[in-house]
From TrEMBL:
Residues 150-203 are annotated as: Domain III. GO terms for biological process: DNA recombination; DNA repair. This is Holliday junction branch migration complex subunit RuvA. Keywords: Cytoplasm, DNA damage, DNA recombination, DNA repair, DNA-binding. It comes from Nocardioides bruguierae. Pfam families: HHH_5, RuvA_C, RuvA_N. The RuvA-RuvB-RuvC complex processes Holliday junction (HJ) DNA during genetic recombination and DNA repair, while the RuvA-RuvB complex plays an important role in the rescue of blocked DNA replication forks via replication fork reversal (RFR). RuvA specifically binds to HJ cruciform DNA, conferring on it an open structure. The RuvB hexamer acts as an ATP-dependent pump, pulling dsDNA into and through the RuvAB complex. HJ branch migration allows RuvC to scan DNA until it finds its consensus sequence, where it cleaves and resolves the cruciform DNA. Its main location: cytoplasm. The keyword Ligase does not apply. The lineage of its organism: Bacteria, Bacillati, Actinomycetota, Actinomycetes, Propionibacteriales.
């Protein structure tokens, strides 16, 4: 799996960028915003780094490039929804920033999602239904919510650990609350994570 690529930008077209790596030019399908960020580096010695996602089909291998890992993560998650392929997912991250996508899906905002070409009301409703519990809260909201609980960093560590193991945000939050009384004055994150997993396995 290719996580990212860093190299000289050899060319930019209306929809793609070619990055030279070890004498090989790799072509990435990119959003207009990403292309705009790498265009000034074409033909220079400046290096560009793109987060990469490889889409494998029976008859093709296509690389998609992104300005950062957050945009890439949204692109890949969107494709887990029924009827959303790489082209539609790319259109979504092109029209809506990652936090705008998270907010629209979490809030059930059909109108915002239908701003994306190729997504109608029914498609937007399906995406909301399938991804609402997976998309997570906007990063700005998470940062604001973390301020009051700055004295309990273990909560976020356990929550992230659970999400990394595949649990959605809603279930992770419930499990964190369920083990809060075990934290004490010197919480052990590993112990609390195991306790949270036991809580989830019983649910």
């Amino acid at each position: 799996m290719i996580a990212f690529v860093s190299g000289r930008v050899a060319a930019v077209t209306l929809s793609s960028a070619v990055v030279e790596v070890g004498g090989v030019g790799l072509e990435f399908q990119c959003t207009p915003a990403t292309l705009a960020s790498v265009s000034p580096k074409v033909g220079t010695d400046q290096r560009a780094t793109l987060a990469a996602s490889l889409v494998v089909r029976e008859d093709s291998l296509t690389l998609f490039g992104f300005a950062d890992e957050d945009e890439k993560a949204c692109f890949e998650l969107l494709q887990t929804a029924s009827g959303v392929g790489p082209k539609v997912a790319q259109a979504m991250v092109a029209v809506l920033a990652p936090d705008d996508l998270r907010h629209a899906i979490s809030a059930g905002d059909v109108k915002t999602l239908t701003r994306v070409p190729g997504i109608g009301p029914k498609g937007a409703q399906r995406i909301i239904l399938e991804l609402k519990d997976k998309i997570g809260a906007p990063l700005a909201t998470r940062a604001a919510a973390a301020v009051p609980s700055a004295g309990e960093p273990w909560r976020e560590q356990v929550r992230q650990g659970l999400q990394g193991l595949g649990w959605n945000l809603k279930d992770a939050d419930k499990a964190v609350d369920a083990v809060a009384d075990q934290a004490g004055d010197s919480p052990d994150v590993a112990t609390l994570l195991r306790a949270a997993l036991r809580t989830l396995s019983k649910a």
